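Example 9 (inverse folding). The structure is encoded as follows.
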């Protein structure tokens, strides 16, 4: 049985995100095909928890080759989106951190598929925050169903 979601998503206003692509790009350096966050939908006042999303499009670079005729978002991109969410938290709390690199991924489980046209909602909560490391637990949700979970570690580089 999958774990419960970190947050009650019915309480998140996805029509009024706290930050769109410009806000995300002011914090995270990823651009173009490598930016995998479209919005920050909610950020806890203490910046230890966050909800964001990625709208999976049919024109993304991986679609023609990651299962022709039945495109599925690669798991590594789901994890990259979660890593970008974790980096967002760290840099928001510690702007002097600069670039936060993805250095670890543990306890990963994929529980569902994600296809073009779907919204991947990303939930992140801080497990540990130190000057040289942030560890966040992350979940990915599509249509109310948990599709992946992971523990993400990042550090300023």
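The amino acid assigned to each position is listed next.
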């Amino acid at each position: 049985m999958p774990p419960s979601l970190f947050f009650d998503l019915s309480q998140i206003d996805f029509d009024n995100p706290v930050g769109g692509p410009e806000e995300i790009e002011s914090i995270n350096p990823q651009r173009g095909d490598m930016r995998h966050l479209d919005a920050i939908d909610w950020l806890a006042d203490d910046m230890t928890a966050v909800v964001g999303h990625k709208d999976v499009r049919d024109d993304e670079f991986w679609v023609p080759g990651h299962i022709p005729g039945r495109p599925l978002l690669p798991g590594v991109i789901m994890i990259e989106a979660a890593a970008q969410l974790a980096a967002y938290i760290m840099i928001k709390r510690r702007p002097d951190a600069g670039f936060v690199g993805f250095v670890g991924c543990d306890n990963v489980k994929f529980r569902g598929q994600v296809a073009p046209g779907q919204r991947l909602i990303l939930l992140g909560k801080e497990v540990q925050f130190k000057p040289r490391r942030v560890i966040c637990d992350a979940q990915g949700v599509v249509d109310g169903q948990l599709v992946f979970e992971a523990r993400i570690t990042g550090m300023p580089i």
